[in-house]
Specification:
Strand 4 and strand 5 (about 90-95) form a beta hairpin. The chain has a single domain (about 5-175), classed as Aminopeptidase, CATH 3.40.630. The protein has helices spanning about 20-25, 30, 45-50, 105-120, 135-140, 170-175; strands at about 5, 10, 60-70, 75-85, 90-95, 125-130, 145-155, 160-170. By secondary structure, the chain is α+β, with helices and mostly antiparallel strands. An 8-stranded mixed β-sheet has the order 1-2-3-4-5-6-8-7, sandwiched between helices.
Length: about 190
């Protein structure tokens, strides 16, 4: 099942996506985290991970490719993980550098947030980034995320120290930003 935004589609991963994912992950600019070095990810590694997923009706994660609606071109990858049903989840996104500043990441995030709040009924969506990634912080803030946790000087990347930051978006904040949507879950 694909999820559609204004300009992007979030669709399931396929075996033919694995080389794109390896290339994206091996790019020191797009991988964002110094702890993922060395950059030696292979298509086979991603394919093995893909093939080892087991069927479950109660999955605690979801992995999607981000595609441009108009061309079908792969833009990046977006996911949620650690889902605690009706409570919280953590999201992540990685996009190819050529799509930075195009609004594609924000559009993909909007689609995923709608799915998480409306379909999965989560109360809190969390993400992690670092202060050396101002685009990620700006995109998150644009969507209503707020800083919830900071570890000072805990990320070393490109010869610089950055703060590791966690941001979150609460259910009531999401619905306040989207008055056309009705929150149908009862208050706790």
């Amino acid at each position: 099942m694909a999820l559609e935004g204004k300009n992007v589609i979030l669709r399931e991963q396929r075996p033919e996506d694995m080389q794109f994912l390896a290339d994206l992950r091996n790019d020191l600019v797009t991988q964002a985290w110094s702890k993922t070095l060395p950059t030696d990810y292979t298509e086979r590694m991603f394919l093995t991970q893909f093939e080892q997923r087991e069927f479950s009706y109660d999955r605690d994660d979801g992995r999607f490719m981000i595609e441009r609606k108009e061309s079908g071109e792969s833009i990046g990858y977006i996911s949620y993980s650690g889902l605690e049903p009706r409570w919280n989840v953590t999201i992540g996104i990685m996009t190819a550098k050529k799509f930075w500043g195009t609004g594609a990441a924000v559009d993909a995030l909007k689609v995923l947030l709608l799915f998480l709040f409306e379909e999965l009924g989560v109360r809190v969506v969390r993400l992690w980034t670092h202060t050396g990634n101002p685009r990620a912080i700006g995109s998150a803030e644009k969507l209503g995320f707020k800083l919830s946790f900071r570890q000072r000087e805990s990320i070393f990347k490109g010869g610089n120290l950055y703060d590791n930051v966690s941001m979150d978006l609460l259910r009531e904040e999401y619905y306040a930003l989207h008055p056309a949507l009705e929150d149908k879950l009862p208050d706790l």
